[in-house]
Each structure stands twice: as structure tokens, then as C-alpha cells.
Amino acid sequence: MLFGKKISYTEGDFQTVVEACKAGESQAQRYLYKQFFGYAKTVCLRYTSTKEEAEEVLNEGFLKVFKNLESYDSVYPFKVWLRTIMVNTAISNYRKQKKHTEDRIALEDAPYLGFEEDIVSQITAEEILSLIQHIKPVYKNVFLLYVVDGYNHREVGDLLGINEATVRSHYVRARALLQHLIKQNYPHLYPGYRTEKRLVEH
Fold first, then answer.
1. Exposure of 101 by Cβ count < 10 A (0-12 exposed, 13-18 middle, 19+ buried)?
2. Among 74, 172, 192, 199, which is most buried by a count of CB atoms within 10 Å?
């Protein structure tokens, strides 16, 4: 249970913090929560549509963190383990809601463009993450899971409940939509960009 017993720990010795948290030591849990709150919230915001939804996922994620600390292997970075829990919690939340049916940009209206790595490299990761929030969540989530969080196509499919072929298709479409958004928001990067557009073919 959170914020219960009192066991000694040293803030400079993370392993003692973890052991105290496992035992339910309230101050240690608060310390760990504060240390990783910002990082965990950033992860949750990527996979949710509103700040309120992100906070719900964050709180649920931290409950899972404290509940499952016994399974954490200190050989690996804590942040990686924490991120996995937050991502899984966010995706579980996404699958439960069943409300993400409308595309913010209609796929049929988006040009099917080649992904120009040299252009993409000219904008920051923060700008890319901001743009990707404007596409349909299922495409966004595939892109984030694969590109940002390093899951392979099979793992992405397992998380989202879709087959690997669909994951690959969604990833290609996510890249096309992202390229379209970059051209819309950063036209100066495309001096030779023409107005003629080839639409996605189904």
C-alpha cells in the first residue's frame, strides 16, 4: 500500500530507495514519484489526447510501478522499466476507450509522399512529436511505439491488438501524414514544392 511503513533509505543510493519503496515506505515512494514525475508525464502525453487523460494514465502507471517493483531488475536502467509500464498503461487506456474513430486529417485527403529524411532532420524531435499529435491515434501510436520507443512491428501489433501487416501499413501511412504536416507547417523547407498533389490510392 502506498505511503505506509517507515524504512531507512539514502536518496543518493537509488537501490535503497527502491528497496524502501518495495516495503511501502511513504517518503521513499514520494521521492521516487517526484524524481520521475516529469519524465513519466512526457511519455503519457505522447500517447494521450488531453492533459487530463495523460494525468489519469500517469497515476495508474505509478500505481503499477509501486505494485510491481518486485519485478524490477536493477541490472537495467529504472527509466527503461518505468517507460515500459507507462507506455503499456497508455496503450491499454487507448484500447479500452474505443472512442478514437475520427481522423484529425482525413487520410484520403493527405498526399502520399515519399518520406524525405533530409527534410525531417531539419526540424527538432519536439516539433515532430507536436505534429504527430494531429493524426489519427492508431497511426500516431504505431509511429511512436516503433520510432520513439523502439518496439518492433510484432511487439507493436501485440500491444495494439492488430496483426504485423497492419502495423506496417499504419506505419507507412503515419509517415505519409507526417510528411504532409511538415510540408504544411514548414513550407520554407521545400523550395521546390509544387501545388499539385497525388492523393493516397486505396
1. exposed
2. 172
